[in-house]
Amino acid sequence: MPKAYDPRDAFYRKAKQQNLRARSAFKIDEIQQRLKLVRSGDAVVDLGAAPGGFLQVLAQTVGPRGRIVGVDLVPIAPLGGVVETIACDVMDPALGERIRSLLGRPSADFVASDMAPKTSGIRDADEARSLLLVGRALELAKTLLHPGGHFVAKVFMGGEFDAFFADVKRAFEESRVIRPEATRTRSREVYVVGQRRRTGG
To answer: In this predicted model, what pLDDT tens digit does every residue of 138-157 receive, in sequence order?
Structure first.
């Protein structure tokens, strides 16, 4: 029989040892180490930010001159420093302006999305919900990023993935799919990366 899934795997334990809020911190860290999408002083948006694993890594990367806004449906325990968080539905049409106001800048350098729906166990339905969220993340990225900005979003393979990836290709000069090492073995999640937002794309 296959080995039962253990939520307290090596990355879970490593996150606890390093006082990281979630194992997802290792995913964004790997992507950053590979592609160098975020720089010191950047303005960053993190969608689906709870409990704050991405935020912790990104805050270290942007440093004291940077600015980060984290968004989630649930309140996020404060991290302080350059990180500001809001509890808000990403479908709220006013969200883009709220983010800009908190960034204190007209545009962002980097938009990340680690959003995922509550799974029902029905594969097609879960994939559809995932793509609805990641589609909204891409929409916000197009609105918030300046030309040349970057985008990273978690998405589950299947369904309309190819159509979504085609949208990313149209909006960015370069695109790719990454499956970080910290991704659980049985998971179908990957991260889509869009580099260098096209002007008017």
So the answer is: 999 999 999 999 999 998 87
Contact 88, 73 (CB under 8 A): yes
- CATH class entry, domain 10-197: alpha beta
Let me know the angle formed at the C-alpha of 55 by 51 and 58, rounded to the nearest 5 degrees. 160
**Which residues lie closer than 8 Å to 103 by C-beta, 6 or more apart?**
43, 45, 67, 69
d(CA 146, CA 182): 30
The conformation of residue 119, written as its DSSP 8-state character, comes to: P
Catalytic residue among 3, 27, 36, 154: 154
At residue 109, what is the residue type?
Answer: D
1 pLDDT above the threshold of 50: no
154 is catalytic: yes
Where are the chain's structural domains? 10-197
pLDDT in tens, 55-81: 999 999 999 999 999 999 999 999 989
| Predicted local distance difference test score (pLDDT) of residue 2 | 42
d(CA 72, CA 8): 24
Is the pLDDT at 48 greater than 60? The verdict is yes
Read off the pLDDT of each residue in 158-164 and give the average, rounded to a whole number: 85
Strand 67-72 relative to strand 145-156, pairing: unpaired
Main-chain dihedrals φ then ψ at residue 15, nearest 5 degrees: -60, -45
